[in-house]
Protein backbone atom coordinates (compact mmCIF):
# COMPACT_ATOMS: atom_id res chain seq x y z
CA UNK A 1 0.00 0.00 0.00
CA UNK A 2 1.27 3.50 -0.84
CA UNK A 3 2.53 5.34 2.23
CA UNK A 4 2.94 9.05 2.78
CA UNK A 5 6.06 10.37 4.41
CA UNK A 6 5.63 12.53 7.48
CA UNK A 7 6.52 15.55 5.36
CA UNK A 8 3.86 14.67 2.76
CA UNK A 9 1.22 14.15 5.47
CA UNK A 10 2.10 17.48 7.06
CA UNK A 11 2.02 19.20 3.64
CA UNK A 12 -1.46 17.90 2.81
CA UNK A 13 -2.74 18.82 6.28
CA UNK A 14 -1.30 22.33 6.10
CA UNK A 15 -2.66 22.94 2.61
CA UNK A 16 -6.11 21.85 3.72
CA UNK A 17 -5.77 23.97 6.83
CA UNK A 18 -5.17 27.05 4.69
CA UNK A 19 -8.16 26.33 2.47
CA UNK A 20 -10.47 25.47 5.32
CA UNK A 21 -9.41 28.60 7.19
CA UNK A 22 -10.67 30.70 4.29
CA UNK A 23 -13.87 28.67 4.11
CA UNK A 24 -14.44 28.98 7.85
CA UNK A 25 -14.05 32.75 7.61
CA UNK A 26 -16.74 32.82 4.92
CA UNK A 27 -19.07 30.60 6.95
CA UNK A 28 -18.43 32.63 10.10
CA UNK A 29 -19.42 35.77 8.24
CA UNK A 30 -22.59 34.11 6.98
CA UNK A 31 -23.80 32.92 10.40
CA UNK A 32 -22.28 35.79 12.43
CA UNK A 33 -20.72 33.21 14.75
CA UNK A 34 -17.22 31.93 15.43
CA UNK A 35 -16.36 28.71 13.56
CA UNK A 36 -13.86 26.43 15.29
CA UNK A 37 -11.60 24.10 13.29
CA UNK A 38 -9.73 20.97 14.25
CA UNK A 39 -6.24 20.06 13.10
CA UNK A 40 -6.57 18.18 9.77
CA UNK A 41 -5.98 14.44 9.89
CA UNK A 42 -4.45 12.69 6.85
CA UNK A 43 -4.54 8.89 6.67
CA UNK A 44 -4.41 6.10 4.11
CA UNK A 45 -6.82 3.30 4.91
CA UNK A 46 -9.19 0.82 3.34
CA UNK A 47 -12.29 2.46 1.94
CA UNK A 48 -14.63 0.60 4.28
CA UNK A 49 -12.58 1.79 7.25
CA UNK A 50 -12.73 5.34 5.93
CA UNK A 51 -16.53 5.15 5.91
CA UNK A 52 -16.47 3.74 9.45
CA UNK A 53 -14.34 6.71 10.59
CA UNK A 54 -16.81 9.12 9.00
CA UNK A 55 -19.73 7.35 10.65
CA UNK A 56 -18.00 7.52 14.04
CA UNK A 57 -17.51 11.28 13.62
CA UNK A 58 -20.86 12.52 12.31
CA UNK A 59 -23.15 9.56 12.95
CA UNK A 60 -24.84 7.17 10.57
CA UNK A 61 -27.61 9.49 9.38
CA UNK A 62 -26.01 12.44 7.61
CA UNK A 63 -26.62 15.38 5.33
CA UNK A 64 -23.94 15.51 2.66
CA UNK A 65 -22.78 17.87 -0.07
CA UNK A 66 -20.37 16.25 -2.52
CA UNK A 67 -18.15 17.65 -5.26
CA UNK A 68 -16.08 15.48 -7.57
CA UNK A 69 -12.85 17.20 -8.60
CA UNK A 70 -10.58 16.27 -11.50
CA UNK A 71 -7.11 17.52 -12.37
CA UNK A 72 -3.53 16.38 -11.81
CA UNK A 73 -5.02 14.48 -8.88
CA UNK A 74 -8.70 13.75 -8.40
CA UNK A 75 -11.27 12.44 -5.99
CA UNK A 76 -14.43 13.28 -4.07
CA UNK A 77 -14.81 16.08 -1.55
CA UNK A 78 -17.61 15.79 0.99
CA UNK A 79 -19.06 18.21 3.50
CA UNK A 80 -21.01 16.21 6.08
CA UNK A 81 -23.33 17.12 8.95
CA UNK A 82 -25.36 14.95 11.30
CA UNK A 83 -28.81 14.87 9.70
CA UNK A 84 -30.34 16.01 12.99
CA UNK A 85 -28.38 19.30 12.83
CA UNK A 86 -29.02 20.33 9.23
CA UNK A 87 -32.14 22.40 9.97
CA UNK A 88 -30.35 24.13 12.84
CA UNK A 89 -27.61 25.17 10.41
CA UNK A 90 -30.20 26.53 7.98
CA UNK A 91 -31.73 28.49 10.87
CA UNK A 92 -28.27 29.88 11.74
CA UNK A 93 -27.65 30.85 8.12
CA UNK A 94 -30.96 32.65 7.83
CA UNK A 95 -30.68 34.13 11.33
CA UNK A 96 -34.41 33.69 11.71
CA UNK A 97 -35.23 31.81 14.89
CA UNK A 98 -38.96 32.10 14.38
CA UNK A 99 -39.26 30.51 10.93
CA UNK A 100 -41.66 27.53 10.98
CA UNK A 101 -40.27 24.05 10.39
CA UNK A 102 -41.96 23.56 7.01
CA UNK A 103 -40.37 26.76 5.66
CA UNK A 104 -36.94 25.70 6.92
CA UNK A 105 -37.35 22.29 5.34
CA UNK A 106 -38.22 23.82 1.98
CA UNK A 107 -35.02 25.90 2.07
CA UNK A 108 -32.78 23.18 3.52
CA UNK A 109 -31.41 21.62 0.33
CA UNK A 110 -30.68 24.90 -1.44
CA UNK A 111 -29.10 26.53 1.63
CA UNK A 112 -26.87 23.61 2.55
CA UNK A 113 -25.81 23.01 -1.05
CA UNK A 114 -24.70 26.65 -1.19
CA UNK A 115 -22.76 26.28 2.08
CA UNK A 116 -21.12 23.11 0.76
CA UNK A 117 -20.27 24.84 -2.49
CA UNK A 118 -18.54 27.72 -0.65
CA UNK A 119 -16.57 25.51 1.73
CA UNK A 120 -15.53 22.82 -0.73
CA UNK A 121 -14.54 25.32 -3.41
CA UNK A 122 -12.50 27.33 -0.90
CA UNK A 123 -10.52 24.22 0.01
CA UNK A 124 -10.08 22.97 -3.55
CA UNK A 125 -9.31 26.47 -4.79
CA UNK A 126 -6.59 26.81 -2.18
CA UNK A 127 -5.01 23.55 -3.32
CA UNK A 128 -5.23 24.65 -6.96
CA UNK A 129 -3.56 27.99 -6.21
CA UNK A 130 -0.70 26.53 -4.20
CA UNK A 131 0.01 23.81 -6.75
CA UNK A 132 -0.67 26.19 -9.67
CA UNK A 133 -3.05 23.63 -11.11
CA UNK A 134 -6.57 23.77 -12.50
CA UNK A 135 -9.33 21.53 -11.23
CA UNK A 136 -12.62 20.78 -12.89
CA UNK A 137 -15.30 20.46 -10.22
CA UNK A 138 -18.72 18.97 -10.83
CA UNK A 139 -21.73 20.85 -9.50
CA UNK A 140 -22.28 20.17 -5.78
CA UNK A 141 -24.72 17.38 -5.04
CA UNK A 142 -26.91 17.22 -1.94
CA UNK A 143 -27.93 13.99 -0.26
CA UNK A 144 -29.45 12.78 2.99
CA UNK A 145 -29.42 9.28 4.42
CA UNK A 146 -27.20 6.68 6.00
CA UNK A 147 -23.43 6.69 5.40
CA UNK A 148 -23.67 3.32 3.69
CA UNK A 149 -26.29 4.54 1.22
CA UNK A 150 -24.58 7.86 0.51
CA UNK A 151 -21.08 6.48 0.01
CA UNK A 152 -22.17 3.39 -1.87
CA UNK A 153 -24.28 5.59 -4.12
CA UNK A 154 -21.46 8.03 -4.78
CA UNK A 155 -18.71 5.45 -4.96
CA UNK A 156 -20.59 2.73 -6.77
CA UNK A 157 -17.66 1.90 -9.00
CA UNK A 158 -15.24 1.58 -6.10
CA UNK A 159 -14.49 -1.56 -4.12
CA UNK A 160 -14.61 -1.52 -0.33
CA UNK A 161 -11.18 -3.19 -0.25
CA UNK A 162 -9.55 -0.30 -2.12
CA UNK A 163 -7.15 1.93 -0.22
CA UNK A 164 -8.01 5.61 -0.11
CA UNK A 165 -6.43 8.76 1.19
CA UNK A 166 -8.84 10.18 3.73
CA UNK A 167 -8.34 13.79 4.74
CA UNK A 168 -10.57 14.83 7.62
CA UNK A 169 -11.17 18.14 9.30
CA UNK A 170 -13.84 18.84 11.89
CA UNK A 171 -15.49 22.20 12.32
CA UNK A 172 -18.09 23.45 14.74
CA UNK A 173 -20.36 26.37 15.57
CA UNK A 174 -20.43 26.01 19.32
CA UNK A 175 -23.01 28.75 19.79
CA UNK A 176 -25.47 26.69 17.73
CA UNK A 177 -24.24 23.24 18.80
CA UNK A 178 -23.48 22.32 15.19
CA UNK A 179 -20.53 20.29 14.02
CA UNK A 180 -19.51 18.95 10.63
CA UNK A 181 -16.77 17.16 8.78
CA UNK A 182 -14.87 17.95 5.60
CA UNK A 183 -13.28 14.98 3.84
CA UNK A 184 -11.32 14.41 0.67
CA UNK A 185 -11.24 10.82 -0.58
CA UNK A 186 -8.76 9.77 -3.28
CA UNK A 187 -7.77 6.43 -4.74
CA UNK A 188 -4.21 5.06 -4.95
CA UNK A 189 -3.44 6.42 -8.42
CA UNK A 190 -4.60 9.88 -7.42
CA UNK A 191 -2.62 9.65 -4.17
CA UNK A 192 0.53 8.94 -6.16
CA UNK A 193 -0.14 11.93 -8.40
CA UNK A 194 -0.64 14.11 -5.30
CA UNK A 195 2.59 12.98 -3.64
CA UNK A 196 4.52 13.54 -6.88
CA UNK A 197 3.09 17.05 -7.02
CA UNK A 198 4.01 17.74 -3.38
CA UNK A 199 7.56 16.55 -4.02
CA UNK A 200 7.88 18.73 -7.11
CA UNK A 201 6.27 21.81 -5.57
CA UNK A 202 8.31 21.69 -2.38
CA UNK A 203 11.57 20.60 -3.98
CA UNK A 204 11.71 17.12 -2.48
CA UNK A 205 13.14 15.51 -5.63
CA UNK A 206 16.90 14.76 -5.55
Automatic annotation (TrEMBL):
A biological-process GO annotation: chemotaxis
InterPro entries on file: CheC, CheC-like_sf, CheZ_family_phosphatases
GO molecular function, one term: hydrolase activity
Domain CheC-like protein as annotated: residue spans: 7-40
Native source species: Thalassomonas actiniarum
Protein name per UniProt: Chemotaxis protein CheC
Assigned keywords, A-Z: Chemotaxis, Hydrolase
Record-linked Pfam families: CheC
Amino acid sequence: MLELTEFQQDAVAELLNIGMGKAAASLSEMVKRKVDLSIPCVEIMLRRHAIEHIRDTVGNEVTAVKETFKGTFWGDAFLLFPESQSLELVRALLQEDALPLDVLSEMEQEALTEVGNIILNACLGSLANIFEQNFHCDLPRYAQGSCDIIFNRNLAAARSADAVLLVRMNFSLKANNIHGLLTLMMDVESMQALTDLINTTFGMID
